[in-house]
Design a protein that fits this description.
Layout: E1 5-6, E2 13-14, H1 16-31, H2 47-60, E3 73-80, E4 84-91, E5 106-113, E6 119-123, E7 128-131, H3 134-137
Antiparallel strand pairs: 1-2, 3-4, 4-5, 5-6, 6-7
């Protein structure tokens, strides 16, 4: 029979069976979903991050390349909820872009989900928000 050993930091004797049992219990506790999260908890997007998500997608997908320069638009956050930011893309009227500086017509409206970063586009014909699809917006 093998001699019993001491576990570091413990003053009690441990048998090989109890050591194995302790290892199994520890493994179950560590992989239990109630004790360990799958990954780091993500933080919801703030307004600046949401606007960056929107601008990056619009540039990447060339949504307005044939319509208007990004130098001649502004982003106006119209609504903030715990779920999304609602943003109006507006024409910027000044000396460089032209137009009446007292008017800033809405080109399109978007919602950016704070948790996922997924975007929705307001379809004025249907009077509702639908998943972002650059081909439908162009």
């Amino acid at each position: 029979m093998k001699p019993y050993g001491l576990v570091a930091g413990c003053s009690t004797l441990v048998t090989p069976i109890s050591r194995c049992l302790a290892t199994v219990i520890l493994a179950i506790v560590l992989i239990s979903p109630g004790f360990v999260q799958a990954g780091p908890k993500s933080h919801p997007l703030d307004e600046d991050a949401a606007l960056n998500v929107l601008l990056s997608a619009l540039k990447r997908d060339h949504v307005y390349d044939k319509r208007i320069s990004f130098n001649c638009v502004t982003f106006d956050t119209e609504e903030t909820t715990r779920i999304y930011f609602q943003v109006a893309l507006r024409e910027k009227h000044d000396k460089k872009c032209g137009g009446d500086p007292d008017i800033a017509p809405v080109i399109d409206r978007y919602r950016v989900n704070r948790a996922s970063g997924k975007m929705e586009w307001y379809n004025p014909t249907e009077d509702n928000y639908e998943p972002y699809n650059p081909a439908r917006i162009r």
